[in-house]
């Protein structure tokens, strides 16, 4: 009887230990990260940035501490892709030095696959355009120190009517992992009218079960306000419709993406679509504004031009290390539009906090004529007495050692000037 009682007590102890362990795991899983400002004695230089949603991200696959950088085939090539183009693009990212600046993903968009699955129900590459297969291509890209991205759709077909992954999530994720894929862009066509909140999580679960860390880029075009739910599902989520290579499209998309700023942060980012820089539809200054605002918004920096044949101006924009550093800043707070004035609100100030108690500020002239744009301290959330140094990120030099109260600059039409404000107490070296 004593032995039975002892065994019973031992079993109860085991159950209690198991309960405590499971409870601790569940509680640990629900503990969300706090804003980095709260983890140190450093107080933000500005007080206007809402970070109340910061830390809601739960996908926890170890990716996307900063916004993804790389290249995607769609904006320039659309369906005119093949394995030679992908290999040559990987080579060009290396030879131009863009890879060293962080552009490491080589992402194949729609049209890489056949129109139907094979007899085993698997996705297959188009034998005419990708005769060596995706695994061989991944091996080539990996040999360059880069990562390969693939494309599929949370529907029965892709947007170009190739086989989609809806109801094939686990098989397709396992196949992608076996090929060595590092990134999945997951589109929204032919979705049978099923809510994206139901269609996108199964692929998250499948990717997590695949045994390979695969960046999960949700592309549902902002239809169901993904910033409200996708932080628990993917590493980035499209907040807008497709961009096109025009000033009107770019500015409209920037405004839409701005709405969702509080929801982005390390682990998951708002995605206003890929870069059009270098594709020819906008001017040099418009492209520079495009790149500046995307960097400030912590948007993915995915080059959309033919990097094998870039102009010097295109390369100058894409390779600006100081602007890239804003995008990749470890604090990870999305900058946003903080003040507008003038006709149709075309004089705009965008800003965002950065690590090191700094502030990035963009003066964006969306008017048709050059103008002087002034950012006042109260618009930036700065105390009126604070003194800052101002570094111009396009001129690559300090333009003020001790600005107080406001900062003004001449800005060309459809141009954007970008700066780092640093409190004067911080050490700064002035000059070039």
TrEMBL record:
<dbReference type="InterPro" id="IPR041233">
    <property type="entry name" value="Melibiase_C"/>
</dbReference>
<keyword id="KW-0472">Membrane</keyword>
<dbReference type="GO" id="GO:0005975">
    <property type="term" value="P:carbohydrate metabolic process"/>
</dbReference>
<dbReference type="InterPro" id="IPR002241">
    <property type="entry name" value="Glyco_hydro_27"/>
</dbReference>
<keyword id="KW-1133">Transmembrane helix</keyword>
<dbReference type="InterPro" id="IPR000111">
    <property type="entry name" value="Glyco_hydro_27/36_CS"/>
</dbReference>
<comment type="similarity">
    <text>Belongs to the glycosyl hydrolase 27 family.</text>
</comment>
<keyword id="KW-0326">Glycosidase</keyword>
<dbReference type="Pfam" id="PF16499">
    <property type="entry name" value="Melibiase_2"/>
</dbReference>
<keyword id="KW-1015">Disulfide bond</keyword>
<dbReference type="InterPro" id="IPR013780">
    <property type="entry name" value="Glyco_hydro_b"/>
</dbReference>
<dbReference type="InterPro" id="IPR017853">
    <property type="entry name" value="GH"/>
</dbReference>
<keyword id="KW-0732">Signal</keyword>
<feature type="transmembrane region" description="Helical">
    <location>
        <begin position="12"/>
        <end position="32"/>
    </location>
</feature>
<feature type="domain" description="Alpha galactosidase C-terminal">
    <location>
        <begin position="345"/>
        <end position="420"/>
    </location>
</feature>
<dbReference type="GO" id="GO:0004557">
    <property type="term" value="F:alpha-galactosidase activity"/>
</dbReference>
<dbReference type="InterPro" id="IPR013785">
    <property type="entry name" value="Aldolase_TIM"/>
</dbReference>
<keyword id="KW-0378">Hydrolase</keyword>
<dbReference type="Pfam" id="PF17801">
    <property type="entry name" value="Melibiase_C"/>
</dbReference>
<protein>
    <recommendedName>
        <fullName>Alpha-galactosidase</fullName>
        <ecNumber>3.2.1.22</ecNumber>
    </recommendedName>
</protein>
<keyword id="KW-0812">Transmembrane</keyword>
